[in-house]
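Bumping with the actual sequence this time:
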Amino acid sequence: MPILTTPLATLDLVRHPERADDPLQAFDAADEYLLNHLHHQGLAPTDRLLVLNDAFGALACSLVGYATVTSSGDSHLAYLALQRNLARNGLAQAPTFVPASETPAGPFDTVLIRIPKTLALLEEQLIRLHGQLAPGARVIAAGMLKHLPRAAGDLLERYVGPVQASLAVKKARLLIATPQARPMPVSPYPTRYRVEQPDIELLNHANLFCREGLDIGTRAFLPHLPRALGAVRVADLGCGNGVLGIAYALGNPQAALTLVDESYMAVQSAAANWRAILGERPAAIQADDGLATQPAGSLDLVLCNPPFHQQQVVGDFLAWRMFTQARDALVQGGELWIVGNRHLGYHAKLKRLFRGVEQVAATPKFVVLKATR
């Protein structure tokens, strides 16, 4: 297991979810570059430091004890990784964690930013920094060159101040912004779009997948949702803005719904949409590690449009994990309904977990599958 070694700390870090023989590590050269740069510049114990988008806690774990640290991001899995790595390294002093659905309270002397995959999230985070920076504050963003679009520097320039790009080190780069007075920005988020069937309007916060319109996988899934199953217990797993769970609830007034996602902004969006469309109808809407905390045998139906990446890493690991969680949470005879790209081969994967798998519908690109426990 690679060890993160910088002048600030030597840490044994793991990714979350952890898997056996994982070829990926819980930090990269951009984390090292940020930490080395910060050590060279110096930190005071009285400094208030904000860390944004710390994927597995490498930055926050390295900095606790040197300053007052607040960590904020949109991933509940990242939060769990931070807690796990604090414990793994015997770090009793935990940073304050603020979900991206809330605004961290400054003033902050230093802001460290890992550039996220979704630039809309970065833009919203930079907008929220307005009025939260102490005099003389420093704002330092970092990313690997292959994941560092020019637009990231443009956003820093627009919302913070002039940007100086560092030299590249180990294929990583820093963008150092000098804060200047800026007018109070108006956030373009959340955005909204309409769906035709069912006829609903959906709100979407900055980090939502397909924020500007319904994604084509969900569009293929919606006409084929199961109907009229009575008082069943249903989970929308990886719910995003809640469209699958809400559409199902509209067609099944007796169903009890749980909507879960690892994105705090997704859960925030889904909760707002549920209230706007279904009013006071009860539902459990929460950020979680999939169905990891769902009791065994407590669901009759799971609906899922699974993700195919974690941060910048593409693969089916998270989808496979969600399928396993669904199987464990379902009653005997319960069903998992999913939509997926044809080329991902989910039919074969589901056959290894469920006693029956059948194709419900198909388009040239997507398949809708039903797996029975």
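The tokens above came from a reply further down the thread. Residues 264-278 form the longest helix (15 residues).
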